[in-house]
Amino acid sequence: MRRGGIVIAGVGSTAFGKLPGRSTLSLNVEACRNALADAGIEKDAVDAVWAKVPTSALEFLYGMKVAAALGIEPDMGGTLDLGGASNIAMIASAALAIEAGMCRVALVTMADNPRTGSRAAYGRAAQGDAAPYGWTGIAAGYALIARRHMEQHGTTEDQLGAVAVAARRHGAANPAAQLRKPITVEDHAASPLVVDPLRRDDCALVTDGASAVVVMSAEDARAMGVRAPVPILGIGQAHTARDLPERSSLTRTRAADAGARAFAMAGVGPAQVDVAQIYDCFTITALMTLEDYGFCEVGEGGAFVEGGRIELGGALPINTSGGLLSESGLPGMQLIAEAVRQVRGEAVNQVDGAGICVVSGQGGVMHTHATLVVGG
Description:
Layout: E1 6-13, H1 24-39, E2 48-52, H2 62-70, E3 76-80, H3 86-99, E4 105-112, H4 120-123, H5 138-153, H6 157-172, H7 185-190, E5 193-195, E6 198-199, E7 209-217, H8 218-223, E8 230-239, H9 255-266, E9 275-277, H10 283-292, H11 301-304, H12 323-326, H13 333-344, E10 356-363, E11 368-375
Parallel strand pairs: 2-3, 2-4, 9-10
Antiparallel strand pairs: 1-7, 1-8, 4-7, 5-6, 8-11, 10-11
Helix pairs in contact: 1-2, 6-10
């Protein structure tokens, strides 16, 4: 893919939180309409639709159902499920298809409604031999990883708390955030345990809502008069098929490979990144991704996030709209929307000089990884 040859032309979201009576199709349609309006593109220009399958209600041919609900008969598109890595992976598929001349304007969208619908997918027993022994729910796997990181590197609960404090500070200043209540490290330590050592404030929100983006070539964006296209500088993916008991390490992930590939395509490194949107389904995920991306050495993530370093005004502000811990627990498209707003200079919690932003996506229990670098 050519660096900067493909752009995100528009972003759109619904409200986040408790949205009773809303189907995932209606949420996707609303987010896509908002993204098209942001880009200034008419629906008739769209010839491709990619949609992430909802985690709370898996459906066959879901991408085509979204296209039908939008009134579009696409030339390209489909449905993808890589968990929270799906959104960046779908953008990569759209970008490659556009460069190959197979489509011109793509909608990439995701929606879910677990808050008012079913949350069963998040509480199911683990696969394999561990299930009969009580390994139940997604949080248990992340708790195992967090405990291993603590034992191996001396990471503390207060350092995990620093990730939550930053997200909640940023979410409190974001009128669109689902949870707008700042916390302190002491508040984090007093929140109830979910699975030791993870506490309630270490865990992402449960959210109804949707987010979408419009993807097209830089040339078409200019020709169509898109007001503020944001170039895609680099994309990388790397995944593991191994479940936790089969992995050689619980404290290194293939986010390192996904990040390295995206940075290489973009021609930048961690030192050139001004702001980051780091997938934070749990606080340990964000901390380890910062290590894997090379913002600090492996094992030093705990020290890196202390002292306000990842908050507004710090050396590397992350999750400036509140992340999954405060803005929306949806699996990641909202992070991409915030990256676009930051590069445009339109974010509520704007970082001065935000020329380069990196976004991470992660699915399963650190099974899938995708990285996006955008910039002006």
